[in-house]
Design goal:
alpha/beta; Chitobiase, domain 2
Length: 583
């Protein structure tokens, strides 16, 4: 890497405590070990313990027990029996899961103040270890926390896990009451995020568990399909360039005339009809379709606040629409949260001092068209130095103000992040983001943000898996030592090749810091980043790191496969830069 010769980089390094040293220069370990006295649960490959579940366990309590049993067997080749609490114990030590009589006897009382929605308590007794969640999902999360903290199990990406091998396993004294950093956590879908203790759009053996959330974001088309409504009621749809027309697009356009009272009533009715069919829904989404095409009729336009910038162009009209629809739904379903968007041209709240969202609304604020190079709270976005002003772009300092404004208006704020897309992602280039998320996610937690989500794609794990992994870990526990987390990741994921593979990825982080320009959707796209980030020096360093990693991993087929993912990233980077004319 070339020498970094400007003050802002030094500031970033000091501000983030960003560690780019070799793996051998490790900070403290990721988790503090348990302490004695210890109880043997497996000795010489033979079980000395059992797992106890309630006499009438729930699905997730049974699943938690089988997960614990499965990973202990993977580690130690010992099958620990699962019994119900009214059955006879075979061994002196037990791991007791869920809402058992034993947990009641020792006064483990799940409560929201101490555990949040789905935290847990792990408590050591003389001959037992108790794990009980605030709910059944919390009990499962307690099992995963036990496996990760004390048995060194890791789930790095779908199909790629790590666990040590040992014929002897023991547990010391653990007294942990844990409350997740965010109430709602969404990084990925399926079983991988379940292992990371996410609670939105997760499943256990194909069964949906966690938060019952209906629909992701853009829902106008779902709630008022043009193919069902347009022929009889074209007035329900947006007037654009003097016409009310619809398109075949499934994702954009076809906006609604949100000032029309009939539209308000019909959308509310359709939300209620959905809840009548699925009354267990906890969150349901109400938001415009993606893109533009908002209604230009006199009634809608009159609701827009004059003189506001691009990020508030439609804020007031949509705030009124959202509040009126939410109020109707609340009459029948007062405890269902209606998630509405604060996004792009309606990111800012209205100016009116009388405005306040209904208390059944959760606001989803999107960190899009703001900076993804500099960390929140750093004041490093500087007009004329790191960015040139444009109507659609605002620096992070402005995003922080918008965040605070929404937090003042509503206790229900959900942040929508973009750790996988942008100009870089669209050009099949890596997107170094760890230097941001290591401080941004704790920043959100400390501000009081209730929920966190980042866009993520399973088919990009080979390229962006580190981003997804760090995001998920911090979403669950924003207090983790990120330097230790990074070292732990490379040591366990790449084994002998840990040091060069860390250099491969961290060299891109260094280059991103050195570049020091603001980047966002629609600002500083592929061209300047591609030229300035992937310098000849960086490309040479990445290639040498890969060659070293490949030579170190030749005798381990697992590590060979994982290093090959990075080789694919490198090859695609060279191909993309060549196609774009940068090389």
């Amino acid at each position: 890497m070339k020498c970094i010769n400007y003050y802002n980089y030094i500031f970033v390094v000091l501000f983030l405590g960003f560690c780019v040293s070799c793996v051998k220069n490790k900070p403290k370990t990721l988790y503090e070990p348990d302490r004695g006295p210890f109880s043997q649960i497996v000795q010489s490959g033979q079980s000395l313990s059992q797992i106890i579940i309630p006499a009438k366990p729930t699905y997730l309590e049974e699943f938690a027990a089988t997960e614990l049993q499965k990973y202990i067997e993977k580690i130690a080749d010992a099958s620990i029996p699962i019994i119900k609490e009214d059955e006879t114990r075979e061994y002196p030590f037990s791991i007791v899961l869920g809402a058992t009589k034993k947990s009641d006897e020792v006064e483990i009382q799940p409560n929201e103040a101490g555990m949040g929605r789905d935290g847990f308590e792990i408590k050591s007794l003389k001959d037992d270890l108790i794990i009980r969640g605030r709910n059944d999902l919390g009990t499962l999360f307690g099992v995963y926390e036990l496996l990760e903290r004390y048995f060194e199990v890791r789930w790095f990406m779908p199909g790629e896990e790590y666990y040590p091998r040992s014929n002897n396993l023991e547990l010391g004294q653990i007294n942990l009451i844990y409350k997740p950093s965010f109430t709602f956590r969404w990084v990925g879908r399926g079983e991988w995020p379940l292992h990371q203790r996410m609670n939105c759009f997760i499943n256990a053996e194909g069964m949906d568990v966690g938060v019952n959330w209906k629909w992701h974001f853009h829902t106008f088309r779902r709630l008022m399909p043009p193919e069902l409504y347009y022929e009889e009621h074209p007035e329900y749809f947006a007037l654009v360039n003097g016409e009310r027309t619809i398109t075949d697009s499934r994702s954009s356009g076809n906006q609604l005339c949100t000032s029309n009272p009939d539209v308000i009533r019909e959308v509310a009715k359709n939300l209620i009809d959905t809840l009548n069919v699925e009354p267990d829904i906890e969150i349901i989404t109400l938001a415009p379709n993606d893109g533009r095409g908002f209604c230009e009729c006199e009634e809608c336009s009159s609701l827009d606040e004059p003189g506001r910038d691009w990020h508030a162009g439609y804020s007031n009209r949509l705030a009124i629409f959202n509040r009126e629809v939410s109020a109707i739904v609340k009459e029948k379903y007062p405890y269902v949260l209606i998630k509405v968007g604060a996004y792009a041209m309606y990111a800012r709240p209205p100016l009116s001092e009388d405005y306040k969202p209904e208390d059944n609304q959760i606001i989803q604020l999107c960190h899009l068209y703001f900076c993804h190079t500099h960390p929140l709270g750093s004041n490093m976005c500087k007009e004329g130095e790191t960015y040139e002003s444009s109507p659609e772009y605002q620096p992070n300092q402005e995003f922080e103000k918008i965040l605070d404004q929404w937090l003042d208006l509503s206790p229900h704020l959900f942040v929508y992040e973009y750790y996988s897309i942008d100009g870089m992602g669209r050009a099949n280039l890596p997107w170094p983001m760890v230097h941001n998320m290591r401080s941004d996610i704790p920043y959100y937690r400390d501000k009081g943000v209730e929920g966190f989500y980042t866009q993520q794609s399973d088919n990009l794990f080979y390229r962006l898996g580190l981003n997804y992994y760090i995001a998920a870990k911090l979403c669950w526990n924003a207090d983790l030592n990120v330097d230790a987390l990074i070292n732990d990741y490379f040591e366990k994921f790449y084994g002998k090749a840990a040091e060069p593979m860390k250099e491969f990825y961290m060299s891109m982080e260094e280059s991103m810091l050195e570049w020091n320009k603001c980047s966002s959707y629609g600002l500083q796209g592929v061209t300047p980043i591609g030229i300035d980030l992937f310098t000849p020096e960086l490309i040479e360093e990445m290639e040498q790191s890969l060659i070293t990693a490949e030579s170190l991993s030749v005798d381990d087929e697992i590590i060979v496969r994982r290093v090959a993912m990075a080789r694919r990233v490198y090859n695609e980077t060279i191909e993309s830069l060549t196609e774009l004319g940068y090389l």
